[in-house]
Design goal:
Length: 139
Amino acid sequence: MRIAHLILTHKNPQQLERLIKVLDHPAFDFYIHVDKKVDQTPFAFLTQKKNVFFITDRVPVYWAGYGTIQATLNGFAQMLPKNYDYINVTSGQDFPLRSPEEIYQYIAQRKGLEFITCESIEDEWKDAAPRVQKYHLIN
């Protein structure tokens, strides 16, 4: 089973390196989307690892803006031809609470299941409703 981690980031290349090191596993590849508003050069050293790839179609990302979705879709477009069993989307500021082997086993034991949740903006997440119901021209 192969798993791709799509990591959306915009700062702290050394923190991202630490994340990749702590998540490293023979079945994992890492795809990095660096916000287009940021110089990607400080992150370039990460491609020295054979399982780290940069998303080539970068976009500017603004918090809670469409750029986050577009960056994710661009990552999927680059990863999908490689036939991964799972794709995990995370940020460069996240950090795992379990070892890579525990993460791998957890997913492998639940093969075929999806780990996606959503909340109703009418009931559980009312603060988000204006973001969907009104225009926010940040991109």
